[in-house]
């Protein structure tokens, strides 16, 4: 096992929310990374160049199974979905943790991830629901017209990291082009980004494109944290009933990384009591990487 003492660390590369290998969202999982500084983690995340990389170490919280730090190529995030799903599954696959429910310590607290052979289900933490920007203004920042929206509000929703959820009409999704300056002005301090959704109520399926703030508004292939937010948004807008509702989201086609995310939201007395997202994890590479100076 490589350690920082010999100048190298072991890592795994996995595809998350992936219907098959070389689809979904890529993730680098760097093991035994507790001695790395923030600057070293950021350097390695930039080197991998994936939308996120994770750095695993021993937990500091007594209820946690492990601790993870999550970095985009440019910044650290307190929480993210596909890194949580992919890291938990990797640790179980490598025999470092038993299958079943594991508890991940991250910047947003301790969250539960249920792992089986095929993939994992992440249960979100504290539900966040805030007023978002005007839907027409948000549409304009994506190169769309007000008529492209359904008229439903663009709430800011999430479970550790917030996204603006914008519902658009069929045909508009493909035409969305982010204006980074306009989005920065509309969504100051929002770490997640914008999830643009076309919703099929009868099938309880959606197609989404996620423009990620942490990636300078570039498009993310699969975004578990945004999928959690979608469940909250659906419940807030009365698009799912009381009780437990499963929903499916397709993402990533526009960037040629097709992804499938299986959401589940529980509503009681008109409020979201739990939301989770699941997907397959496909290992694709194993290696070692030098520790930056």
* Beta-strand content: 35-45%
CATH architecture of the largest domain: Roll
Largest sheet: 8 strands, mixed, barrel
The CATH class of the largest domain is identified as Alpha Beta
For the termini, the CA-CA separation is 20 Å
The tally of strands reads: 17
Report low-confidence residues grouped into runs of 5 or more: none
**Structure classification:** alpha+beta
Under CATH, the homologous superfamily of the largest domain reads Diaminopimelate Epimerase, Chain A, domain 1
According to CATH, the fold-level topology of the largest domain is Diaminopimelate Epimerase, Chain A, domain 1
Total helices: the number is 5
Helical residues, percent: 10-25%
Number of domains: 2
């Amino acid at each position: 096992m490589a350690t920082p003492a010999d100048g190298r660390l072991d890592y795994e590369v996995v595809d998350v929310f992936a219907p098959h290998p070389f689809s979904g969202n890529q993730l680098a999982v760097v093991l035994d990374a507790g001695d790395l500084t923030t600057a070293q983690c950021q350097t390695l995340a930039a080197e991998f160049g994936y939308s996120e990389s994770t750095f695993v170490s021993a937990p500091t919280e007594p209820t946690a199974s492990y601790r993870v730090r999550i970095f985009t190529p440019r910044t650290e995030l307190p929480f993210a979905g596909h890194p949580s799903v992919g890291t938990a599954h990797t640790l179980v696959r490598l025999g470092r943790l038993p299958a079943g429910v594991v508890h991940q310590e991250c910047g947003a607290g301790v969250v539960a991830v249920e792992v089986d052979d095929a993939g994992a289900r992440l249960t979100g933490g504290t539900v966040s629901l805030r007023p978002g920007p005007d839907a027409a203004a948000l549409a304009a920042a994506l190169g769309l017209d007000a008529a492209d929206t359904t008229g439903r509000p663009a709430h800011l929703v999430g479970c550790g990291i917030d996204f603006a959820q914008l519902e658009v009409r069929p045909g508009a999704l493909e035409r969305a082009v982010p204006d980074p300056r306009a989005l920065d002005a509309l969504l100051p301090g929002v770490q997640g980004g914008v999830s643009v959704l076309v919703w099929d109520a009868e099938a309880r399926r959606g197609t989404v494109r996620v423009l990620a703030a942490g990636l300078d508004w570039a498009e993310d292939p699969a975004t578990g944290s945004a999928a959690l937010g979608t469940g909250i948004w659906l419940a807030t807008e009365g698009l799912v009933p009381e009780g437990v509702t499963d929903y499916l989201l397709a993402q990533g086609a526009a960037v040629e990384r097709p992804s499938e995310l299986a959401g589940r939201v529980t509503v009681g007395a008109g409020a979201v009591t739990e939301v989770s997202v699941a997907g397959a994890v496909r290992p694709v590479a194993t290696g070692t990487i030098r520790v930056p100076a």
